[in-house]
Amino acid sequence: MSVYTIGEIIIKDEAAYKEYQALVPATIAQYGGRYLVRGGEVTPGEGGWNPGRVVILEFPDAEALQKWATSPEYAPIAEIRHRAADTKSFMVQGV
Fold this sequence. Notes:
4 strands, Alpha-Beta Plaits
Protein backbone atom coordinates (compact mmCIF):
# COMPACT_ATOMS: atom_id res chain seq x y z
CA MET A 1 0.00 0.00 0.00
CA SER A 2 1.35 3.43 -0.93
CA VAL A 3 2.51 5.75 1.82
CA TYR A 4 2.95 9.47 1.76
CA THR A 5 5.34 11.67 3.66
CA ILE A 6 4.13 15.21 4.11
CA GLY A 7 6.53 17.91 5.20
CA GLU A 8 6.30 21.54 6.17
CA ILE A 9 9.59 23.30 5.46
CA ILE A 10 10.90 26.63 6.71
CA ILE A 11 13.97 27.56 4.68
CA LYS A 12 16.76 29.26 6.64
CA ASP A 13 19.53 29.18 3.99
CA GLU A 14 18.22 29.53 0.44
CA ALA A 15 21.53 28.63 -1.27
CA ALA A 16 22.03 25.47 0.76
CA TYR A 17 18.39 24.46 0.25
CA LYS A 18 18.80 24.85 -3.52
CA GLU A 19 21.77 22.46 -3.30
CA TYR A 20 19.55 19.99 -1.41
CA GLN A 21 16.81 20.36 -4.04
CA ALA A 22 19.28 19.54 -6.82
CA LEU A 23 20.65 16.42 -5.11
CA VAL A 24 17.64 14.78 -3.48
CA PRO A 25 15.35 13.75 -6.42
CA ALA A 26 17.66 10.98 -7.65
CA THR A 27 17.72 9.37 -4.20
CA ILE A 28 13.93 9.51 -3.91
CA ALA A 29 13.52 7.85 -7.32
CA GLN A 30 16.14 5.21 -6.44
CA TYR A 31 13.85 3.96 -3.65
CA GLY A 32 10.66 4.06 -5.71
CA GLY A 33 9.45 7.44 -4.49
CA ARG A 34 8.12 10.39 -6.39
CA TYR A 35 7.10 13.96 -5.74
CA LEU A 36 3.40 14.77 -5.66
CA VAL A 37 3.89 18.31 -4.32
CA ARG A 38 7.14 20.25 -4.25
CA GLY A 39 6.46 23.76 -3.07
CA GLY A 40 3.67 25.55 -4.83
CA GLU A 41 1.21 28.08 -3.53
CA VAL A 42 -0.48 27.19 -0.23
CA THR A 43 -4.06 28.29 0.38
CA PRO A 44 -4.94 28.00 4.08
CA GLY A 45 -8.03 26.05 5.06
CA GLU A 46 -9.54 25.36 8.45
CA GLY A 47 -7.69 25.53 11.73
CA GLY A 48 -5.28 28.34 11.01
CA TRP A 49 -2.46 26.16 9.60
CA ASN A 50 -0.59 28.19 6.99
CA PRO A 51 2.69 26.48 6.10
CA GLY A 52 5.08 28.38 3.88
CA ARG A 53 6.33 25.41 1.89
CA VAL A 54 4.87 21.91 1.63
CA VAL A 55 6.40 18.78 0.11
CA ILE A 56 4.49 15.53 -0.40
CA LEU A 57 6.30 12.37 -1.47
CA GLU A 58 4.73 9.03 -2.42
CA PHE A 59 6.51 5.71 -1.86
CA PRO A 60 5.27 2.21 -2.71
CA ASP A 61 5.20 1.23 0.97
CA ALA A 62 6.51 2.19 4.40
CA GLU A 63 9.56 -0.06 3.99
CA ALA A 64 10.67 1.80 0.84
CA LEU A 65 10.22 5.15 2.58
CA GLN A 66 12.21 4.00 5.59
CA LYS A 67 14.98 2.58 3.40
CA TRP A 68 15.26 5.90 1.57
CA ALA A 69 15.19 7.99 4.75
CA THR A 70 18.00 5.92 6.31
CA SER A 71 19.98 5.21 3.15
CA PRO A 72 23.68 5.95 2.75
CA GLU A 73 22.84 7.86 -0.45
CA TYR A 74 20.47 10.23 1.35
CA ALA A 75 22.41 10.72 4.61
CA PRO A 76 24.84 13.42 3.36
CA ILE A 77 22.03 15.17 1.49
CA ALA A 78 19.83 15.12 4.59
CA GLU A 79 22.61 16.91 6.45
CA ILE A 80 22.36 19.75 3.95
CA ARG A 81 18.61 19.98 4.60
CA HIS A 82 19.13 19.95 8.37
CA ARG A 83 21.43 22.98 8.03
CA ALA A 84 19.29 24.75 5.44
CA ALA A 85 15.77 24.33 6.81
CA ASP A 86 13.54 23.46 9.73
CA THR A 87 11.20 20.63 8.83
CA LYS A 88 8.15 19.00 10.38
CA SER A 89 6.85 15.85 8.71
CA PHE A 90 4.68 12.80 9.07
CA MET A 91 3.87 9.62 7.15
CA VAL A 92 0.38 8.46 6.30
CA GLN A 93 -0.81 5.31 4.52
CA GLY A 94 -2.95 5.57 1.42
CA VAL A 95 -6.22 3.77 0.85
